């Protein structure tokens, strides 16, 4: 049998003539940090203090002892970041230039000092640029010239920390006769029967040896012969249980085991989990344009999505448990689709395993983002090789439902002045419309592919045309008020969002000793967006008076504005299902402590936006929408059963006076949106009135005026505490009450975000991680809207 020996121990990192202990998997920054050579780049202004690291060459070393007992020994690196040469006892084994690939070297009969020498990623990228010429990009860093995680070079939410190192596991594999080189599982459902076709490639040490493969899944067993170096074994599982996205059904997973045999003796084993399901992407034309609707097991769905960036700028630090926590947060917010953005990486198996188990659909970008990418060598061969490897690697996962060619590059070519600057030079179109769809069609034909996001489906329409395919809505954040989300109904909103600072405790940890202010040095250093604070201010001033010099109020209002902005978009677009078939919020997570669009900050704390997503992405949602002729209540029902009930509508004043009320019955079919017109006499008028709609424990509010115009009363409420909870009882209207639990204790978390209470109403907020409940302290951590603030 093939034997694998991890090579995790005994590594050193050469630095200034010293041999520093090195962690493998890991990277230069984390090793230098552990050795006390550099400050933590996440704290204060540490990012700029370690910029030199990315400009250096680095060498990892360890001894490799002789091994025997097998015909062949391979040295296998699952991931090298990025431009490296590998030597064993001074003999060159090979060179690498792609972070997104694995690498295998024959070291049979060899031993001695193993060295992995990394060139600076800057030097590699700049050399390729010098050979192929300039290509435009959204940022000045040369990330498009090297097959490396683009956001290592910084982004509008991420630090510039250009890594190097052995970032994924490394091992020795010893084998005889033959080994399994690749297994490509094609999984389908045919009239209730689960079908698995395993296409197997082998590498031989002895050409003449007769080989067979035996596979088992769901109690079904089958064999097939290996002819030369390949073979296919087919298994049929009767009455296969279907895998569904969360909220639509269960997520049964089947273990698959394939064994390579020689004369009935096992040589190698391949094990994975699969799920039986069908996936289609309906891109058919209709009277509204060109659709973009996911269809799972025949069920059409509105995708409730979030964009995912690498959860740490040093991805080797992300553990299986951390993936599970972060993706569990996504599922807890009602999310059913996670888009892995193209400036990051193909994630580890731990990510996709968690999505399989949680029922989270995965939209996988190929790693291209916001730049014109050269198509000549040495990049072209690397792109195809990485695509072939990762398509096959990820195929077993039922959660994976879409391959996407790139992020914003087709749009950039058309709108960002690239076409004129390129003057005919290659820029990536051949990847997105040629190489990548060909690779997916050949290797993974059961999954849909789209050339990019945004993409209208062809050059016949503008790449970011909201009426065709996927749409990125960034004009709103950059220049407009979030109310403008309601001005159009895209077919699928793949990116949109609004910024807010991280939790107070996250900022305090990241900026030790700094007096926090919106424009303090550390806060500005942890704001990477172009004119980010200016956009935050302008976006806030459209709705609230700007709280000059009051950081705590600034922090709270920015959180409110972020939640309000995202709610404006999602409520509007969900109310227009099935014309709009999905929203993917930018973004779920952060890779360090930063002001950004994330719902979960860089320390893993949930912002108010996170809790708002729980409401917005619930199966059932009430929302008041302005329509021609007046107000309408949309009852959005994504559940599998019809929704019937009675709406209680109340027209109220901010002083708490009931002006008018009515009860109206409603009925909404499954996976549909029902509409109820608000009686004209119940429509609020002016800044002192608002509408409340309640049904089945859900509530929708409509204020016809901007918050800055509403004369909110001075909030009066009572606070009581108990172990694990804070209860607030309102004596007046209390608008957008927020308990910032991390102000009670850094580890404390609240189970809900913004809540509006009418006079006499109460809410109990669950709090975990708060060791000594105190009512006065709880009151100091409560914030809400009041007139003029």
What does this structure look like?
The structure is a single chain. The protein is α+β, with helices and mostly antiparallel strands. The strands form 12 sheets. A 6-stranded antiparallel sheet has the order 3-2-4-9-6-7, covered by helices on one side. Strands 27-26-25-24-23-30 form a 6-stranded parallel sheet. A hairpin with a 4-residue loop joins β33 (643-653) and β34.
In short:
The protein has 16 helices and 44 strands.
Low-pLDDT windows of residues: none
- The tally of beta strands, per DSSP, is 44
Most strands sheet: 6 strands, antiparallel
Counting DSSP H or I runs of 4 or more residues, the number of helices is 16
Helix content class: 10-25%
Cα gyration radius (Å): 28 Å
Category by helix and strand content = alpha+beta
DSSP strand content? 25-35%
The mean pLDDT is 97
In the sheet with the most strands, the strands line up as: 3-2-4-9-6-7
- What characteristic shape results from the CA principal axes? globular
Distance between termini?
71 Å
